[in-house]
Amino acid sequence: MFSPAPDWNDFAMSRRFWPLYGLRITTPRLELALPDGDVLDELAAVAADGVHDEASMPFSVPWTDGSPRDRARATFQHVLGTVAEWRPEKWTLSLAVRCGGKTVGRQDFMTDGFPVTREGETGSWLGLAHQGRGIGTEMRAAVLHLAFAGLGARHVTSAAMTDNPRSLRVSEKLGYRPDGLLVESVRGEARTVLRLRLSREDWEAHRTVPVEMAGLEPCRELFGV
């Protein structure tokens, strides 16, 4: 069960010293924000309930192996770790995705050297109960808007297993192009990963989701831009 949606304004003190808590990205159905308090608990609960069929592993790092409690704790530690380890030259923005007042998944945007390269990578997951509704495409479109329109990115990359058609379809719809293959060891097996790259020009040509941002200006120093 989800707890009642918290009032984002409860975190005014957090925003004072860590303005990323005030950043909001919205689409017609979604709100993306750095989770704190009850929202982080909700996000951990969504992970505990499962994000993919246990017979498969769509991630290079199999963080979803283990018990529901393990998945919840891994989610909790990941988000807090991104805040603790943040530096303007290397950071991971890990956003909770909310739809209709419920937390449904997580959308990350990560980079190393963004002030110089103007390039970052997306990663995400969505709770099993919320898949198949186009939310994955919409939340990726939201963070791409932040990257290109908000932060001036030149390219954004992503990657997916070649046997993960849902993720590859999201990238295709948003304009990513194939950028080579690599082989990784996952659960003791060789898995082929397709790298993907999205240029600013291709992003602009494939934009279909209206996106709005709020609270970005106080965060620019932290993003290194």
UniProtKB/TrEMBL annotation:
SUPFAM superfamilies: Acyl-CoA N-acyltransferases (Nat) (SSF55729). InterPro entries: Acyl_CoA_acyltransferase (IPR016181), GNAT_dom (IPR000182), Ribosomal_N-acetyltransferase (IPR051908). Coiled coil: none annotated. It comes from the Bacteria. PROSITE patterns: GNAT. Residues 30-201 form the N-acetyltransferase domain. This is GNAT family protein.
